[in-house]
Amino acid sequence: MRFPKGFLIGAATAAHQVEGNNIHSDYWAQEHMQFTSFNEPSGDACDHYHRFEEDIRLLAEAGLNAYRFSIEWARIEPQPGVFDENEIGHYRKVLLCCREHGVEPIVTMHHFTSPKWLIEQGGWEAEGTVEKFARYCRYVVEKLGDLMHYVCTINEANMGIQVAAIARRYTLLMQRKMKAEGQIQVGINLENPMMARMKQQAREHMQLFGTPQPQVFVAPRTPEGDLLVMKAHQAAKAAMKAVKPDLKIGITLSLHDIQPQPGGEAMAQKEWDEEFLHYLPYIREDDFFGLQNYTRTLMGPEGSLPVPEGAESTQMEYEFYPQALGHVIRTVHRSLPIPIMVTENGVAVADDERRVAFIEEALKGVQGCVEDGIPVLGYMYWSLLDNFEWQKGFSMTFGLVAVDRATQQRTPKGSLAFLGSFTR
Known about the structure:
Blueprint: E1 8-12, H1 15-18, H2 26-31, H3 48-61, E2 66-70, H4 73-76, H5 85-100, E3 104-110, H6 116-120, H7 128-144, E4 150-154, H8 159-181, H9 193-209, H10 223-243, E5 248-250, E6 252-254, E7 257-260, H11 265-275, H12 280-283, E8 289-292, E9 296-300, E10 303-304, H13 324-335, E11 340-345, H14 352-371, E12 376-382, E13 401-404, E14 409-412, H15 414-420
Parallel strand pairs: 1-2, 1-12, 2-3, 3-4, 4-5, 6-8, 7-9, 8-11, 11-12
Antiparallel strand pairs: 9-10, 13-14
């Protein structure tokens, strides 16, 4: 496989998942709750905050020419309107390190985690968040814009809508269970322990954030909150362009390769509209689009179907299906003819040979799109390091590099060199 000159091949991380000790964020607070939904706290994570030079060097020596990482808002602005010069200086060092190693930095301004104070002020359902996010983004570009070419404003801006859909399905299941309980003439308790835990969590949230339902970025999103995220993207883009007009700015969305099965055509169209199409008015004028895909969704008349019998599954329990990426690039391009950056694509598996096979098949799809004239700028594998997979903790191994968390020793996997070979 060959890619055109200037094509970016790299790997991605998110600050909270790798840096460690992100003590001013909403996630840090939630991880340390008594009734937390996290399997374990992030703690030192991969200590990337102190070891970024080693990690970027590993990436560059393997041949990769790009690194997508996020700047942590909670570090930059730990209190409302109070900016930490030491922390902005840290990210300048990260950017300079990329440049010194011939690596193109792709910066994400918000990757799921927010300052705790923002959530206390209403979070991602509060209109004031739009201006606050734009202010933070402007500050970062004023300080670091000279070292930045590509910026993603918000990671997976549609995640709240996806979480809301899952929450609706869960609620429906609980309602069905309650109806069944009322039909049995014996004292059987069918209450899900998760329901009791949610009540306990609500009380703790009230103590931490002043509300039983804190509007963190991955909380179930209302339609109004969904629009607010788009407003935040547009306001941040305008604020950053005012400082550096030639900065390439986009947003990223989590997209599935939605494949209708017999009778599922209407449901598949509805799903694609919710996941992607309804955002088009807010992103058509962006400089590029950040496409994030991991698998496909089979859609039947009633909604999404389980992984097919006998199909290979990943540690995340979705289907091992690298062909999805090429399909989604083509589908997006039909509606959004601007440059596309694959900002995340990867697989959580224990067997690195399966990771190599996944990358190879995914890149074949990307190459086919490039050959057909679709403007794909680059491919960022998720993730550079085995890291903190949010509520699942450290059990998911997505990384091109293994991390011994007892010693923080890095061990590159064969997949790192394999991915790097495509830049040569």
